[in-house]
Each structure stands twice: as structure tokens, then as C-alpha cells.
Design brief:
This protein is α/β, with parallel strands linked by helices. It has helices at about 30-35, 55-65, 95-110, 120-130, 160-165, 225-235, and strands at about 5-10, 10-15, 25, 40-45, 70, 115-120, 135, 145-155, 170-175, 180, 185-190, 195-200, 210. Helix 2 crosses helix 3 and helix 3 (about 95-110) packs across helix 4 (about 120-130). The model has no long low-confidence stretch (mean pLDDT about 95). GO terms for molecular function: hydrolase activity.
């Protein structure tokens, strides 16, 4: 049997679940299945950052056990994490421990060249970890990208273009925030028709793919979206 690279997927804290008696740590089934189809072994990673502070050495040691990292979607990042003095009324599901853990995971993955696929909130985490900022709200219904499928234009020659094999893709989006100031060392590799940043990667060419949409929504039927997970697992298999 072919070795399946271990792909860490940090869990999302959930206050309520329909099938369990207690609050839970969860990951979307569609996301996990997309990693499995790609040939990876998805492993749920418990977010641990007591008091909203993550221990860099501990996070680095935990991440070192894995071949790749997938930062999934979720609630909003606390605005103070990117230097905002106030929070917009639309900001929701902020969890200080989740933020601290995800941000440190992103820093460690980027510092050590761990193959990384960042999805929706995951892109925002990467941008914030590299000193970027976010628009806290896109303007409400009619302007935000919730429950929307729309085309995105992909930069020719980018890692995203190489991974997907296309210059345009149909993206399934669920977000009301997007990149404002780009993080250090990042370049934009896809945009929506309204100019919204839909993907970023490292200018240096490191093993990062970050998309603002949710490829797992349609990966089961759209080979272009599945190729993002394939690219993550392929990079995780590559010798260091």
C-alpha cells in the first residue's frame, strides 16, 4: 500500500453539535475526504493555546510530526490580531485560543517550509501571521461572498495556476471579510471580478497555496478544485 503522508488539520471549536452531548472539535467531512482522495492521511490536530497564547516550541514540535498542513475555514480572527482598535459588528465566532494556535501554526509552517494549503479563514490567518490586515466586513448582503459561486481569474505562471492547470476557476465562497493590506512576502495570484483577493502565495515560491474560497465544497465533482488537495499531498510526499 502506498504511504499516505500525514496532513495535520487543526480542529475548529464548536459550541453546539447535533450528534454529540457536548461542545466539540470538528472538521468538515468534505475537507477530510478531499485530502483522503488526494492520497493523504488527514489527522485532526487539537488547538492548544491556553489564555490565548501559543508556545512556539510546542507548536513547532507538534507540527514536525506531520508531512503537511491544511488550515481550514472557520470563524473570524479577532481584529486586534492584525492591529485594529475596534471590531465591526459583523465579526463573529471569534475564539482567542483558536486564533493564537492557528497563527503560530502558520508561522511555524512558513518558517520550516512545511507544505501548506490554507482555505478561507486559513488564508486570512496566513496573511495576518505575515503582518497583513483584513477588511472586517465587505458591506453586507449583496456585496459579501456568502453562499456564492463565481469565477476567479488566476495569475499565469503562479503556483496556483500550475496546481489547477487553469487560468479561471469556479469558486465556492463563504466569506464576508477579505485581505486589505497584503502580508510580507505574499503575492496575489487570483481575484474575483469585483477585485477581491481570492488567492495568495509566497513571492519566494515556497510550498504555500492559499485560497479565499472553499475548494472542498465542489472538489468531489470538480477536478480543478480537487487538484489543490492533490498538490498539497504531492508536496508532502516530496523529499525534504
Amino acid at each position: 500500500m502506498t504511504h499516505r503522508p500525514l496532513i495535520a488539520v487543526p480542529a475548529r471549536f464548536s459550541a453546539t453539535t447535533s450528534a454529540l452531548r457536548y461542545a466539540a472539535e470538528v472538521n468538515a467531512r468534505a475537507l477530510i475526504e478531499a485530502v483522503w482522495r488526494a492520497g493523504g492521511e488527514p489527522v485532526t490536530l487539537h488547538p492548544h493555546a491556553p489564555g490565548g497564547t501559543a508556545d512556539p516550541a510546542e507548536v513547532a514540535a507538534r507540527l514536525a510530526r506531520f508531512d503537511g498542513l491544511l488550515l481550514p475555514g472557520g470563524g473570524d480572527i479577532a481584529p486586534h490580531r492584525y492591529g485594529a482598535a475596534d471590531a465591526h459588528e459583523a465579526v463573529y465566532d471569534v475564539d482567542d485560543e483558536q486564533d493564537a494556535f492557528d497563527l503560530e501554526l502558520a508561522r511555524q509552517a512558513l518558517a520550516h517550509g512545511t507544505p501548506l494549503l490554507a482555505v478561507c479563514r486559513g488564508l486570512q490567518v496566513v496573511n495576518t501571521a505575515l503582518g497583513g490586515t483584513l477588511h472586517q466586513d465587505m458591506g453586507g448582503p449583496g456585496r459579501e461572498h456568502r453562499h456564492v459561486r463565481h469565477p476567479v481569474s488566476i495569475a499565469p505562471g503562479s503556483a496556483l495556476a500550475q496546481a489547477t492547470g487553469v487560468d479561471k476557476a469556479e469558486a465556492s465562497c463563504y466569506h464576508h471579510q477579505h485581505v486589505d493590506r497584503l502580508g510580507e512576502g505574499l503575492t496575489v495570484t487570483a481575484r474575483a471580478a469585483d477585485g477581491t483577493v481570492e488567492a495568495v502565495e509566497l513571492t519566494s515560491g515556497g510550498p504555500l497555496l492559499a485560497v479565499q474560497w472553499h475548494p472542498e465544497d465542489t472538489a468531489y465533482e470538480d477536478p480543478v478544485q480537487q487538484r489543490l488537495f492533490d498538490a498539497l499531498v504531492r508536496a508532502a510526499r516530496a523529499p525534504v
